[in-house]
Fold this sequence. Notes:
With 223 residues, the protein is of the alpha+beta class. It has one helix at residues 2-91, and strands at 94-98, 102-104, 111-112, 117-122, 126-127, 132-134, 139-150, 155-161, 164-171, 179-190, 195-200, 206-208, 214-222.
Amino acid sequence: xxxxxxxxxxxxxxxxxxxxxxxxxxxxxxxxxxxxxxxxxxxxxxxxxxxxxxxxxxxxxxxxxxxxxxxxxxxxxxxxxxxxxxxxxxxxxxxxxxxxxxxxxxxxxxxxxxxxxxxxxxxxxxxxxxxxxxxxxxxxxxxxxxxxxxxxxxxxxxxxxxxxxxxxxxxxxxxxxxxxxxxxxxxxxxxxxxxxxxxxxxxxxxxxxxxxxxxxxxxxxxx
Length: 223
């Protein structure tokens, strides 16, 4: 009977030991479970944070896209404004120049007069080194030329367009008239690149005075 009691006591002790171990393992598993739950919560929080960040990034991308479209529209508007300004600048063509040097001519051949005193040259279409105006755009232009001359030689000036006479101004030699003034004017439809200049005929002369012997022109409008 005592042996049986001893065996039962040993079994009971083993059961208690097993129960203790099971309890410890259960507590350890419960702790792990809590840790896992906490980690899952942290991951969920991170996921929500990342989701929020993603939404914020999407919003920022949309804002940047809107800004990009706005800037693109502004760029187009600026380009159009630049084109308008360039068109306006191309429409501003005005020049006036005088020739000096005293007696000019007579010469045995015709001579292009070079008006070197430039009073204005908006658009830079007149060349003071050659005396030639080159049309920068197609349009309707107006030109004038005036001269002062003595009476001892005849005067013969032609307003030229691409080697063709457009209008003419002349004065005969006279011994009774010490000086003469004259000139002419014309409207011309010019193509871009057309040349206009004043040509003195052979055996004629003018008096170079930059205040009275002049060549001028301007663009009325483009066509």
